[in-house]
Design brief:
The protein is an alpha/beta fold. The chain has helices at residues 18-31, 39-52, 65-73, 89-96, 141-151, 202-211, 233-264, 292-295, 299-308, 339-347, 359-370, and strands spanning 8-9, 56-60, 79-82, 100-103, 126-130, 154-158, 166-167, 170-171, 178-182, 195-199, 270-272, 279-280, 286-290, 311-312, 348-351. The structure holds ligand T4K.
């Protein structure tokens, strides 16, 4: 391994200025109100609504609990149609609700659930669809809604990757019944750990706020069997500061994506994703797909070669969720049902892309792929 070269990782957390954070911490210390819907939580929710161009949001302690809570809130039963090409939290949230995940194959261009394959997976027990805007690529929200309307299904978007993503000037978070976000350290926008649920109306916002606080609607009234998944004041303050710098981080990511595309456009056997028409992307991930026959070496060989030079891409999302022991026995986990997802999981590497990468870092990554 070439340890002389500095390590380049798939991402690096966007960190607020420490002195500014300290000022906010002093304020929190002086007020001694450190969680339970304090002033910074309220400010963060208001600022996120305006930044994301959405009507209502409820912030959570991570990006998994809003998924679990969304399924609870909509009283989903039976089977939920979803994608195997995601982080395992998507399917776990279904399992934690005692529901059955039903996997549907993905579209090779976007890596999102393929709407053409959804109807065949619907049974009398299906009550919801949980698609993922994978890598921040918007799902075919129109087609998915048409199917949902036809079969009276609810739609919960796992929008963990889709912070700030817009289509035709509208937030992608406005589609479906509910959408969820992750503000984990590895995301474009982070609050260390954190997440959120996005909803269309105030009534739902109030209900979700109760659910994430044990179901309390006032000091003595519990309206539902809630959970504790509240964000605290310290992370809300951190999140407020990161909101001021996230645009510039996205700009840097975009420049890196453009450099990668330019350098890789004529490399046989390497495919990448272009921007989608009318979409404001956030460049949270830069997946490439390695065709072993045309490129000459396998995805895993390239992955190892990069590691030898201290460059750490990640194989998101390999292995497919449907191959994990909890899920592999499901009928829909049969690889014959998921040919595109199975192939892409074996071809993908997400290249390092983040706000702190230098031009030299980008060149180092490119050189490893082209040489
Ligand atoms: N739905 C989807 C579609 C998701 O992708 C996720 C999370 C969720 C739901 C659930 O949201 P959360 O409950 O997590 O909020 C990471 C993240 O832990 C996870 O949040 C994320 N998706 C997933 C795609 O990636 P790992 O296991 O790859 O993370 P880790 O620790 O290996 O970090 C990756 C790289 O990031 C490191 O090699 C270096 C860098 N890093 C990471 C951390 C944590 C840092 O430089 N500093 C850090 O503090 O899962």
């Amino acid at each position: 391994m070439n340890m002389e070269l500095e390590r380049i990782t798939v991402t690096s957390p966007l960190l607020p200025d420490l002195a500014e954070f300290n000022t906010l911490l002093q304020d929190i210390w002086s007020r001694k109100w450190i969680t339970n819907n304090g002033v910074y939580i309220k400010q963060l929710e208001a600022k996120l609504c305006s930044y994301l161009k959405i009507p209502f949001i409820s912030v959570f302690t991570n990006g998994t609990l809003p998924l679990i809570t969304a399924l609870q809130a909509l009283r989903i039963t039976g089977e939920v149609i979803t994608t195997p090409f995601s982080f395992v939290a998507t399917t776990h949230s279904i399992w934690w609700n005692g529901l059955k995940p039903v996997f549907v194959d993905i579209d090779p261009e976007t890596c999102n659930i393929n709407p053409d394959k959804i109807e065949a997976a619907i049974t009398p027990r299906t009550s919801a669809i949980m698609p993922v805007h994978c890598y921040g690529n918007p799902c075919d929200v129109k087609r998915i809604q048409e199917i949902a309307d036809k079969y009276h299904l609810k739609v919960i978007y796992d929008a963990a990757h889709a912070f700030g993503v817009e289509k035709d000037g509208e937030s992608i978070l406005k589609y479906g019944n509910l959408s969820t976000l992750s503000f984990h350290a590895t995301k474009v926008y982070n609050t260390v750990e954190g997440g959120a649920m996005v909803m269309a109306d105030e009534r739902t916002k109030n209900y979700i706020d109760y659910l994430k606080n044990f179901g309390f609607a006032g000091e003595t009234e519990v309206v539902a069997p809630g959970i504790n998944s509240k964000m605290d004041e310290v992370r809300a303050a951190y999140g407020l500061l990161n909101l001021n710098i996230v645009d510039s981080a996205i700009e840097t990511r975009k420049k890196i994506a453009l450099k990668y595309r330019e350098a890789l456009k004529n490399v046989p056997g390497i495919r990448y994703m272009d921007d989608m028409p009318g979409v404001r992307h956030n460049y949270g991930y830069f997946p490439i797909f390695v065709n072993e026959k045309k490129y000459g070496i396998s995805r895993d060989a390239l992955y190892e070669k990069m590691k030898e030079d201290n460059v750490y891409g990640r194989r998101y999302f390999y292995p497919l969720i449907s191959t994990f022991s909890t899920y592999r026995g499901l009928e829909s986990s049969d690889p014959a049902n998921l040919p595109v997802a199975t192939r892409l999981a074996n071809e993908v590497i997400c290249l390092p892309i983040h706000h702190a990468m230098s031009d030299d870092d980008v060149t180092r990554v490119i050189q490893l792929i082209v040489s």
